[in-house]
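Aim 2 progress update. The chain analyzed this quarter is reproduced below.
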Amino acid sequence: MRKILAALLFFISMPALAQQANFGFESGNYSNWTVSNGSTNVKTTGWSNSGSGAQVTTGMNNYCPGGGKCWTVTPYGTYMLSIQAGNGSPSFDSSMSTLGFNSSETTSIKNTIYQNGNMWPTNASYARRSVVLEAGKTYTYAWNYVSTDYTPYNDGSMVVVTGPAGPVTVNGQQKYALLGFTNPGTGNYSTGSYGSTGWQQIVITVTVTGTYDLSFITFNLGDTALSPILFIDEIIGTTQLNGQSFTSVAPNAGSTAPPPPAPPPPGPTFCCGGTNTSFNASATNTTKVNTFSSRIVKDSKVIIEQIGSSNSITVTQSGTRENYFKYYSNGNNNTTTATQSGTSNAVTNYMDITVNGSSNSLTLSQTGTGGAKGIFATVANNNNTINIQQKDNGNHYLDLSLSGGNKSVAIIQQGSGNHMAAVSLSGNPTSFELTQSGSTQNFYSIAHSCATTGGCGTITVTQGQ
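Predicted structure tokens:
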């Protein structure tokens, strides 16, 4: 069984589409979305006033379209989708037809837009996917419009929801809603020249339960230059203007659109999973291996306190009873490798590790046909690399606490016996992989809290028999 865990996202106040399935982009692609045109490469830099359609991105950092305004837009997790018309984008009329509008409906929308800018929509880019919506529930989805143009070029964006017979309400309107626009007073929200709406939410209700199409579209007016950018995601992220937190704009007067949402929660949290039963790694199962620390070690006992930087330490322990390694390190650019092995069921391998510093490399290995294997490790600060392997027969237990940014973590628990991993992550971003296999008793508990600026990392958990 393979589980790719990118973000367990939810709203407290009202259901989000994430509650039915993952409609975000934490896989790093826009699979299950149909796009007018786009690129499958993840966009990290190179923002400009001309786009390539739909593209997954880690965020916009200090992009300055004009007017002395420089915007930073980040997702709640690691990825969001940007939609920006440009080379290869279809016409507005063609896009509207694809999204389910007949010619008279398209004309009516174009006339409404024309009244606020004396120009007609030209090219457009969109993204669309299916969602299951239940009657009587209210659903939300997040978006952020950034204008790269100036008034009176009233570029804009829309959301469309179509599906089974029966009224569909989007921001208090039927079937569609005009979202962010450049000219003041247009659509649900307006930015002015080179502005941003900040993160907003659409609100959807339906009267008939069924499968609907959810679409977002952004377009140029009067020309095909200086294309606006529409970001979409399951949950609101953050916005900064010239390095300062930006408060999302209020709806235009008379609009039925919702007010700006509250700031996002502090970060996604993953918890408890595995086969058979739930696992409280921080309490119940910890007691199963705490006996490691109180045993009388007779075969190999190594205690190291390392202070300083750019050191290399290698520890190898083997025997027929118990191996104990206690290690404290304070410094940067240190490389530490510790290996414990045994050939008897009586062997107990135990590591107690504390590393405080940046750019350290830590490789811990417990192998052999012996008994239980346990690692308790705390690693703090930035740019650290942690590789942990607990293999072969015997129960495997890991209690790992990590803080700081830009961590790379790979954990393998493999062999006959129970596998239990309790992990606490903070800081951002983190590359994290956990593999548990070789037993029907695989349990993990992962708590991940991270700042929204810079994005949270991707967590991958793989479990097998």
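DSSP finds three helices and 33 strands in the chain. Residues 1-14, 267-297 have pLDDT under 50 and may be disordered. These observations will guide the mutagenesis experiments scheduled for the next reporting period.
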